[in-house]
Amino acid sequence: MSRRTPAKHRLLPTLAIVAGLAGGAFGSPVAADGPAGALEAPTDHSVTGFSDQISVAWVLVPVVVRSKSGYVEGLARDDFHVWVDGRQVAIESFDSGADARVSLIFLQDLSGSMATGGKLEASRAALRDLVGAERTGDELALASFAGGRLAVDVPFTGDRQVFAEAMADWTAYGTTAIHDAVAWIPEISVEGRHPKRAVVLITDGVDNASELAPEAARLAVENARLPVYVFGLGDHGDPLRPEADGGVDTYARVLGRLAAASGGRYFPISDPADIRDGVATLLQDLRAQYVLGFPAAAAEDRRYRRLRVATDGRGREAVFRIGYTGGAPTVWKSAGNG
Fold this sequence. Notes:
about 25% helix, alpha+beta, seven-stranded mixed beta sheet, about 35% strand, 22 strands, five-stranded antiparallel beta sheet, Rossmann fold
């Protein structure tokens, strides 16, 4: 059987990524007519990102609600409240289906350090578990990065066989540029068709080649508007840089902040059982995920805006991404549009 040729293979031009972040070049998914609230990707693609020239975009906010007894399911739109920069907005779209279809990106570190300690086999085990848990209508994309390059090895598809073929071709080589690769998540994610989306990033964490700072990578992830679940293989306790309070930042803390900013999770992986447990938790999160949406001006006054989500009822914790870069909401909450 012949191997798949990667659908997209590009250098990671860090200066172009930074320019895109600073100038707001990453566009927002556009509400489109289609099944299950499908999203239409912007059409103006370039090496610096993508943009759209429409007047209204949709901000989608995936939310997982937990309590001490587990996931809180069965909530309605009126049970949620969303604020942008401290002002409440009207929730105009709502997806609560536990059986709703999912678009998932699997982002694999193939740098040279992944060749040791069974890290690639652990990654294959995680991907096999995710593929095996797919439901009819779900779609999965596979991307990999190493040596200053990012490849979309398998575009979004529901065909499970192609992932076995792609995994067989994995070879560890080159340097690690996690933050540069993460900054391309927005471009990859817009090809997904479903409102329920997430990214799985598997890495051994020691970034030795990124030109993009961790803070800029987190901003790109927040703009992608989907949770990132980071599986950290190996020991991430190595110091990264001193902190202002005299402490030491570590790769584990950087990866944890990356996940938390998006509404995802960080899983420290020390043995194969941790992989299976992490995948199970990720899948539970996705099936229990609510997706709240509201319209925002696409081209006017684009800037970073803070998000806050709350639910009615005591003892509940809402997990969500902390902000987005874009225009102001077009429909604010009022007594008349409850």
